[in-house]
Amino acid sequence: MIILLDIDGVLIRNHAYSAALKQTVAYFARRMGLGEITLTQSDIEVFESQSITIEWDSSAISLAALFMERLRVIAEPANGGKPTQPLPPDFWEALDEMAAEPVSIAHLDFSAVARRVGEATPPGDLPSHAALALFLEDLQGLPLNSGKAQAASLLHHMLADCYNIDHAPAMQIFQNYAIGHAEYAQYYGLPPRFESEPLLEKLDRTYLNAEMRERLLAKRDAREVYPVIYTARPSLAPIEAGANLRGYTPEAEIARKISGIDPVPVTGFGKVDWMAKQVGLSGRDLVKPSPMESMAAMGIARTGQEVESLKAALAVERGDHLRYPLTICASETVHVFEDSPSSLRAVTRAVEKLNRQGLNLRLVRHGIAPEGSPKRAALAAIADLVHNDVNDGLEQIL
């Protein structure tokens, strides 16, 4: 039995990422001269219900929504249709100019933004790219006297490459908050934007109770189950690739430590991104909701071989033949625990691909969402079972 365990919302009460997301949006609202504006927890849950589950996307989309709202208010006839001059081409200089000319906005409906972007995002595409297309279209409808071309350029800067720490402003601020300024400098080799404590270590807690943790590890030791943590969180590069590679942060590994299941292997964005770069791709092309990562996770769960599992999964994704370590997964039952409908669909596609090559896997999809969560209905549409938390689900299969 292979068990795929998501982190945020499943193993971890992700207070840190929610706090970092709220602080990131508030940071940019202040820098744009908009005052204290940020997301609510309900807004964040709506983003997630729309399968916008990676904070680098949701923070960038929220940043761009703030920018568009500022432009809209300025363009109102009562405000004279300003600005009369374009903003500077440099993003950070543009923020300084905006801060020098504060604008009052009463409210921004981030939930409505999330729903609009979610509905416009084709399966497999990045929400930030869908948002960019929407906001560029909106920009053309604003009665600005000038500066549309520069505003479009700034939107591209916010949304076109929001997984690249060297270019993505929302990612830079979010990571500064999430891992803290010292770790930001250590892992990225960049000067932090400000001093901050590491929110991941301060705020995150595990959903996994002590009894269930011990049962899971005992059955793993007995080779009755093969659990693996699989996540879109940043992670270190594959074990075989070596340590201290720039840009690979141990956020998935921190969650594993908090959950107390250190022997369980991890696959995360860092490992997938490393593999992607070996073949001229981007990690965002292969991380979940791509089925490639969940296929790799199955091989890693069974063997612990990270690079070979990633290679084998990429081969299947490209239509090549099935090979070890995936071949050793034949006839297994795969249980996946997720709080994201898009990720459950990705695992479904992964199992379908592998079964077309004769693996004969059985998939059981476990949705995780507490009663009253807006995610519960969306999960019920794809999951075989929906549980209040991961302990309830593991109780049924262990």
Overview of this protein structure:
The strands form two sheets. A six-stranded parallel beta sheet has the order 5-4-1-6-7-8, with helices on both faces. The protein has a two-stranded antiparallel sheet with strand order 2-3. It has helices spanning 15-31, 41-49, 55-75, 91-100, 110-120, 127-140, 148-159, 169-179, 181-188, 199-203, 210-221, 251-259, 269-278, 291-303, 306-317, 341-356, 375-380, 390-397, and strands at residues 2-5, 12-13, 205-206, 226-230, 266-267, 333-338, 362-368, 385-387. The radius of gyration is 22 Å and the shape is elongated. With 398 residues, it is an alpha/beta fold.
**Which structural class matches the secondary elements?**
alpha/beta
Principal-axes geometry comes out as: elongated
User: Strand content of the residues, in percent?
Assistant: 5-15%
**H and E order:** EEHHHHHHHHHHEHEHEHHHEHEHEH
According to DSSP, the number of beta strands is 8
**CA-atom Rg in angstroms:** 22 Å
Quote the average pLDDT: 93
Can you summarize the main beta sheet? Answer: 6 strands, parallel
The oligomeric state of the chains shown is: single chain
Order of strands, main sheet, comes to: 5-4-1-6-7-8
As a percent range, the share of helical residues equals 40-55%
Instruction: Tell me the number of structural domains.
Output: 2
